[in-house]
Amino acid sequence: MEWLVFVVVAVAAIGTALGLVIRPNPLHGALFLVGNLFCVAVLYLLLRAEFLALAQIIVYAGAIMVLFIFAIMLLIPGRAEAGPDPLARARRLALPLAAVFGIAVILAATGRTGGPAVAASEGGIGAVGRLLFTDYLFPFEVTSLLLLAALVGALTLAKRRVNP
Amino acid sequence: MTAVPPAYYVGLSAILFTIGVVGVLVRRNPLVIFMSIELMLNAANLAFVAFGRAHGGAHGQIIVFFVMTVAAAEVAVGLAIIVAIFRARIRINVDDLALMRW
What we know:
The complex is a heterodimer of chains A (164) and B (102).
Chain A: H1 2-22, H2 26-46, H3 50-75, H4 88-91, H5 94-110, H6 125-132, H7 137-158
Helix pairs in contact in A: 1-2, 2-3
Chain B: H1 6-26, H2 30-55, H3 59-88
């Protein structure tokens, strides 16, 4: 089972990485990269690194890639949403797909929750938290300084000059 | 049922890293190059987690946590630089940018 998941996810990861490099449209590349990040998150789960898997999805796929897509949209002017819709046939499937998704979510939310409790393993989230706030406390604090510096730097760069 | 040995994860990480290198070398759009760099960081993270798993303990995961933080900061500043460059000149193509070369 673990092998099966690994092989499928590994092939998907390589495929999405190649998609990023090969596709000419940077927006497609960004979406391929999101897929790749999700594949790696699944691999983290296989490696019992649950905290990293969730952080990967929230930080990378959620925050960093949104920033990328914003930059792509800002820099590469796309076509206006006018004229004949090239995806008219595909869009007709949107409502049925949304209905299927909604049913799946409702089933998942109302169904049996919580499997058997997983024994805390060495290297689980508890160990990560303990290490982070004891042995690695100083690097952790330095990280906050780094983020502040990045914030100020990005703001300074993005600010429009009043007198160029 | 046996667990997948860490060597397979490291091999996959090497493949992903190589694809990222190819992306940096062959693409000319700075955004795609930047995303390829993210791909390489991600591949290195995967290797860290695999080695950490083989070693036992959570040290590998801690390092990946820090790499993620640095990557977030890097993306914020890098995209700000790209947007600033784009404001100055309309075409974005890294081969045209010799301003900081000497």
